[in-house]
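Attaching the record inline, Q. Sequence:
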Amino acid sequence: MNTFLSKSSKLLRSLLEEPFKGTLNLVIGNESADLDSVVSSIVLAYVRSNFTEAKKQDSLYAPLICIDREEVKARFELLYLFEKLNIDYKNLVFLDDIKLDKLSSTLQSQLKVALVDHNVPAKRIGFISNHVDEIIDHHEDKTQSAYPAEVLSAFKAKKITTMGSCSTLIWNDIKQWYNEGSLSTSEKNYEIPILLLSALMIDTFNFDEKTKGSRWLDQDWTAREDMVQAINAAKWADLPKEWKKEQDFDPLRFFYSLNDVKYDLKLNLQLGLEGLLIKDYKVFDYQGALVGYSTAFVSSRDLIENFGPEKIEEDLTRYCQDRKLVCHFTLAVSPIDAADSSKLRREMILFTKDGELLKKLDEYIVKSESKLEVQTVKLNEAYFRAYNDPTLTFTRKIVEPMISKFFLKSPSL
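Structure, as predicted:
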């Protein structure tokens, strides 16, 4: 994997300097660059480059991470995973490493884009829409309104299926090469199932039975079983001791090791308030109304105690103004007990300086079938509303479509 990523990095950095006659296939995850997006893009590009009929000198695949390089430092679980696998994250290519706009205009039809873990390009790189020819995603399908008809009709593949994790879809896409032995007999045959399983375990929260049907499906569980079997069959000599039970790989211990890093309170608070908001952020455009969604891995209480109500209001005001947002949702996810990351709480904080919008959104959320409970927090009620999620199901994948319906029904806002 290191060799592949190093070659991909050198390739992408040289394309504007050296003539290129083939087809460049970029595999891009979503703008939050969470674990699912990053590993899905890396694995798909790796497999397509090495083990498919696309392995040709004139057809090149490379992953592109949809954030700036500096931001990867906040992806604690990704860095932890790469360290254990001896994968050098510095070989990844980020948006600010290349001039994607110039690549687009220079290569034109030579550039193809596969989107994973989302189905519409991030606003920042919306100019690549005409290059998209493949999608593998598990979110709500927004393609019909996002692409011209001629682009939609030219897609070579579009797999948008409700699933717990995009990693399940990627595994299903590549597992034929495992069954045929092409991947399972490669030098480091544990890397691919480990990478994909990391995202699957995090996205399904270790297959919490209470969220079956809303956060994960039977197909996800089948993929998990396949991946664990592949990892154990590899007989990885240097399997980290914290990931194994006796001599075998233990998916539960693997999950806890990733989860503990992801929800480390000290690490998350060190990012600062804006760093927490940027770390796992997406923006959606509802007919010109931009709405931001940040998943923060701390509780509302920790946010308020560490940054204070005034600073939170001040920073969110600036954050929204800089990004031209009409409102912002902070989806706060945190362990109930700091010493045990296996039991979580979920909260949602709505912020807007538009009093009418705040009132209407609050009424919509409370009256909807969301089962979100109004929560009292020490924030200015003129601009904030807070909610508790007793069902533990309201991830951004669930919240965003709900809010989308509100704005699409209220175009005057």
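The first strand starts at residue 23 and ends at 28. The chain has a mean pLDDT of 91.

More tomorrow.
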